[in-house]
Design goal:
Layout: H1 49-71, H2 76-87, H3 117-128, E1 138-141, E2 146-151, H4 152-155, H5 168-178, E3 183-190, H6 205-222, E4 229-233, H7 248-255, E5 257-266
Parallel strand pairs: 3-4
Antiparallel strand pairs: 1-2, 2-5, 3-5
Helix pairs in contact: 5-6
Amino acid sequence: MSDDETPSRYADQPSVQLFDRPPEVMGHIHTSQLDNDTIPEETIEKSPAWLVTFGDVTALMLAFFVMLYSMSQLQSEKWDNIISVLATRDDPQVEGETRPIGERTITRIDLVSAFPTGYLQRILETKLADDPLLKTIRMTGLEDQLVLSLPTDKFFTGNGAVINPEAMPALRRLGVVFSQFGNRLDIKGNTDPNPPAAGSVYPDNWALSLGRGLAVAKALNEAGYPGDFTVLGLADSNYRYIDGDIPEQERFALARRVDIVIVPEARGQ
């Protein structure tokens, strides 16, 4: 068999028609130059599977943000109508609505602080320890107050509201001590539940407790205390707060007192 008659081993394969210009990618068969039917399957570059999912997610996100943007737009026509109405009124207000008389309905008061009550308690404990009558004063430190309780059987005559003359020097000394610091003082008179005796000048315990508070305030002013007082008559309203386990006679004695309340704010406010 001659060379011309020798069958080629490529005779059964389809011929590949190439273009005159070289392929754009060296080492690869360019898909634009070959018929799709003639390209081997292993030479075709396919897109990865995740790219399809990524494209779907991107499209959904774009649609979501477009929807948000469309919903965020104000209705310009209605908004312009509201602006035009408000612009033509100096003081927009509902007809018939009540208006405050003043600029502010609540007055704000900033109180000036004075000595802390804990510091004053230590000073008073030292000052009162030297006087036999002042030692009978019960001192109670509360959260933000200091209460000095004067027993009426030591500082008053009988069951009335007259200061015992023997107690005046002690009250004068107490007034001098109070004048050395600028804290505000409140005076509160208290009584036991028994009403005043028959023929008393005080018709009830309210008047009696107020009279005792005023008597102590006057004695402190005469001793040189320069400030004013807030004097209250509480009668026997605080009796229920005294410990019920102690004997009733002792409870009555504790109820008959005048409380001098020292607050941390400065006086004169």
